[in-house]
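tokens incoming
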């Protein structure tokens, strides 16, 4: 079953995306910041990362920089999810798709499906 990593410091948003993705046939892993997200990825490789940009400890910018520097993790797709930054700025600086908060559920599922397939049906 495809596994999605949700890296988000807001517990309510993290839990909401977790429930949404599980209801659509995906396994999930969660992390409250980028440092935990990289640690989690070291144990299990997700098919995609949903990445908040502004977080304590390690933000999304630093997460992406360190992810790309790791040969084992560099090719894992990432989709930014941000309320603070302009989606175009994020796309330009990180070369990844960016969804604006509050997120459109269909957009989240479309991005995850593109990266991972269609959940349990692909297992």
């Amino acid at each position: 079953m495809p596994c999605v990593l949700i890296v988000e410091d807001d517990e309510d948003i993290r839990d909401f995306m977790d429930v949404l993705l599980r209801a659509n046939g995906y396994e999930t892993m969660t992390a409250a910041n980028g440092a935990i997200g990289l640690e989690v990825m070291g144990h299990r490789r997700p098919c995609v990362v949903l990445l908040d940009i502004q977080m304590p400890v390690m933000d999304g910018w630093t997460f992406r920089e360190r992810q790309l520097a790791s040969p084992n993790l560099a090719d894992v797709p990432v989709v930014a999810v941000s309320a603070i930054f302009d989606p175009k700025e994020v796309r330009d600086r990180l070369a990844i798709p960016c969804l604006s908060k509050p997120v459109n559920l269909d957009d989240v599922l479309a991005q995850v499906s593109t990266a991972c397939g269609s959940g349990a049906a692909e297992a």
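note: The CA atoms of residues 6 and 96 lie 15 Å apart.
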